[in-house]
Amino acid sequence: xxxxxxxxxxxxxxxxHWSSRMAxxxxxxxxxxxxxxxxxxxxxxxxxxxxxxxxxxxICVIVIGMPVMMSEILIGRRGRRNPIATMELxxxxxxxxxxxRWVGGMGVLAGILILSYYSVxxxxxxxxxxxxxxxxxxxATAEAVSAEFSGFVGDWRVIGFCHxxxxxxxxxxxxxxxERGLEQAVRFMVPALLIxxxxxxxxxxxxxxxxxGVAFMFTPDWSKLTWGSVLAALGQAFFTLSIGMGxxxxxxxxxxxxxxxxxxxxxxxxADTSIAILAGxxxxxxxxxxxLDPADGPGLVFQTLPLxxxxxxxxxxxxxxxFVLLSFAAWTSAIGLMEPAVAWVVEHYNKSRSAATVLIGxxxxxxxxxxxxxxxxxxxxxxxxGTLFDNVDYLTSNIMLPLGGLLITIxxxxxxxxxxxxxxxxxxxxxxKAWRLLARFIAPIGILFVLINAVT
Length: 456
Ligand code: TRP
Prior knowledge:
Blueprint: H1 21-32, H2 35-47, H3 51-79, H4 83-93, H5 101-134, H6 142-154, H7 156-176, H8 182-207, H9 210-218, H10 227-241, H11 247-252, H12 261-289, H13 300-311, H14 315-349, H15 353-374, H16 388-415, H17 418-425, H18 430-455
Tryptophan binds next to helix 1, helix 2, helix 10 and helix 14.
């Protein structure tokens, strides 16, 4: 194990540190805001009946997501290593066991599995940049846009190429290290994405069935809520906030001492949730206005948004920019998904950062081929949750992330002593008490309760 202490004997990270508090917030926001908000949230909400799902998702974000995120950051900053080594070190330091490293291990694996299919969808957004720019969507009907989508994903060579392109971009940035490039990309991307979502929202207020869309999203129909959809809401909360797999822990390892963990977490959660809600508000009115099915699945945004852009003045321009931004958002998330695995290979096998990135990236690319084929050649090969893609998605979002979150809160709330966590969270006031109550009781019991009810 490489040593990592500064001259004063304080633990530091081997991979460098964020240049400022803002840089950290931007990086975590960049990892959180991605396909999860704009691609996944609307279609999962659609498949689970809308209103009641959205409400449960919001509750999960606040009472489970927030404490899990704070726990991850504080654990990461205290250990200052990759998630596996950090959990092992702190497990021993807090008088428990080095076996806590398996929680880090499950996170590394989850990151690899998530990115394997995430990259495929991110590849679609790259493909849609080109399609938008070519003008195929101008004045297109709902049927034409749907046919365009089916033809696109139906050809494994095309989406396989896009997947390869996207993974290459992700490998390129991760190989260069944490600070360079990333901060700049996020600083401009998140505000730009927000502005474009507002443009879309404006369009959908004027041209969509706005009332119907809002009603679908915010009128809870409790009869549609099953334990399965509660688990989907919990899984979506974990997925969209990038928590439960050590990514935020890895980012926390590069966080300067004095930054407020509570403040940073609140900022990220607010930004991420707002973008997801905006995406829903922009998309559902268009779904209803065009007679599309909200439960249509992963193709939902790739069919509704091009349709809307196709009817808008300046649509080619807006649509191209939108998919460029969404690709950027996916890119900054992909970096976070790879970081735990790469940091671990660098530290554990003493490899260079670029060698580790190519190794892990290559592995992810190969696993991703299963998802590429799930939309064409193997589209009819279904078991358990559906296609191969559906199964990887279900296993990671609905099982691995909540389980990771459960163990992380148990670790931060029960294994770590009060002094350690109070030291990192920087207070013993009411905010600290609230975090501790959530991390010790509410979050773990909530997660366990949902998992047990949904699986049995
Ligand atoms: N939050 C990302 C999104 O919404 C996806 C994601 C899940 C992620 N876990 C992550 C990103 C870990 C970075 C790190 O698109």
